[in-house]
């Protein structure tokens, strides 16, 4: 076997820590536990039908419906269990919160408690599991409040804006399994060597191109979109004949991780905006363990993430499972979408050429 010249995730973290001699090593241990959880989930996902874990939780099984009102897949439940078990014991965490758990998870008394909070979506893109399309896990690391020592954490302890994240990232379980990580000084990507069982540094400096000709949105919601979103998409669809003067391509995987990863690799813009489908919901995606970590990764890679109205990372959370409108990716496109939201509504939609060619015009 030829020894790889690429550092493993462990070597990378040790090397980073050497630059901060006072660091306790807790953070590195936490990232390695998260990475181990991701490897275990990658394996469960890769077994597919053979693993006997596809499909929904059986009716009547405990927690078959999660706090979001969504019917859980068996792999949602398994992945949540893997995250909890592999991260609760090490002494780095004061608490955890997950898409699949209604309340924050307190670290059991038998384990030491630490200074970090881990928030995660253990399996993102669940609707794709049974059709063998890429899914992933998303994680965000915050610091526990100073007064948290020795007590079980409450929801309020997790309600910190994304700017407070210490680290964030995701694993994608695609043709290759990858781990993408930011600790606030750029974005790095590791690819799992399935024989060594190690994440190897393959993408030391990920950057999102500022411009793109590719957008991603669930067009089946178009009748519920707000005017700035309709305007943006219509202009993309009008292509070379419209105000953008160039043709666009469209993608929709229905897996946030896979969408974020594509955009990180080659640019693009993703929109899951707030819409009128269910006015009680402020969006589809969850702020604390989907939008914030993806936004942190995007910004650290030179991209941008917005609600349409403001920078995602500056949103003050009010609820653990709060939803939010999310637009992210190539900087110039996200800024354009923000401009459309800031302009008086209807402007642009009423431009004569645009109105004539609008493909999503209200009837
Ligand atoms: O089904 P839709 O409306 O296309 O929504 C797809 C979105 O929902 C999600 O699957 C939600 O995540 P979960 O699978 O973790 O609930 C995102 O990954 C994806 O972007
Ligand atoms: Mg998700
Ligand atoms: Mg999920």
What does this molecule look like?
This protein is of the alpha+beta class. Helix content is 29%, strand content 20%. It folds into two domains: 9-203, Fructose-1,6-Bisphosphatase, subunit A, domain 1 (Fructose-1,6-Bisphosphatase, Chain A, domain 1); 214-357, D-Maltodextrin-Binding Protein, domain 2. It contains nine helices and 15 strands. An eight-stranded mixed sheet has the order 2-1-3-4-5-6-7-8, with helices on both faces. Helix 5 (227-238) links the parallel strand 9 (214-216) and strand 10 (249-250). It is globular. The model is unreliable at 348-363 (pLDDT under 50). The structure holds 1,6-di-O-phosphono-beta-D-fructofuranose (FBP) and magnesium ion (2 copies).
Characteristics:
Fructose-1,6-Bisphosphatase, Chain A, domain 1; 20% strand; binds 1,6-di-O-phosphono-beta-D-fructofuranose; 5-stranded mixed sheet; single chain; 9 helices; 363 residues; D-Maltodextrin-Binding Protein, domain 2; 2 domains; alpha+beta; binds magnesium ion
């Amino acid at each position: 076997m030829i020894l790889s010249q690429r550092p493993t995730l462990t070597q990378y973290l040790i090397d980073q820590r050497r630059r901060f001699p006072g660091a306790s090593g807790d953070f590195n241990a936490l990232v390695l536990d998260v990475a181990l959880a991701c490897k275990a989930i990658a394996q469960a996902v890769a077994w597919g039908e053979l693993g006997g874990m596809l499909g929904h939780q059986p009716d009547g099984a405990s927690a078959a419906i999660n706090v979001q009102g969504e019917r859980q897949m068996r792999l949602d439940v398994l992945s949540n269990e893997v995250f909890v078990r592999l991260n609760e014991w090490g002494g780095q965490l004061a608490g955890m919160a997950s898409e699949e758990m209604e309340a924050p998870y307190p670290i059991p008394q038998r384990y030491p408690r630490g200074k970090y909070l881990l928030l995660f979506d253990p399996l993102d893109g669940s609707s794709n599991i049974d059709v063998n399309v890429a899914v992933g896990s998303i994680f965000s690391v915050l610091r526990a409040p100073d007064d948290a020592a020795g007590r079980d954490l409450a929801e309020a302890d997790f309600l910190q804006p994304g700017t407070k994240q210490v680290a964030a990232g995701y694993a994608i379980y695609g043709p290759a399994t990858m781990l993408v990580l930011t600790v606030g000084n750029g974005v790095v990507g590791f690819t799992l060597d399935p024989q060594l069982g190690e994440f190897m540094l393959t993408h030391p400096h990920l950057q999102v191109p500022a411009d793109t000709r590719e957008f991603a949105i669930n067009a089946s919601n178009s009748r519920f979109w707000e005017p700035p979103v309709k305007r943006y998409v219509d202009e993309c669809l009008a292509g070379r004949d419209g105000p953008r003067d160039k043709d666009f391509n469209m993608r929709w995987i229905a897996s946030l991780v896979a969408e974020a990863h594509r955009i990180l690799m080659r640019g693009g813009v993703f929109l899951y905006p707030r819409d009128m489908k269910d006015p009680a919901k402020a969006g589809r995606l969850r702020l604390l363990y989907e939008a914030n970590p993806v936004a942190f990764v995007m910004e650290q890679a030179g991209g941008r993430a917005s609600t349409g109205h403001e920078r995602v990372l500056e949103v003050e959370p009010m609820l653990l499972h709060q939803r939010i409108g999310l637009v992210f990716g190539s900087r110039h496109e996200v800024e354009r979408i923000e401009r459309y939201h800031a302009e008086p509504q209807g402007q642009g939609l009423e431009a004569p050429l645009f109105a004539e060619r609008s493909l999503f015009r209200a009837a």
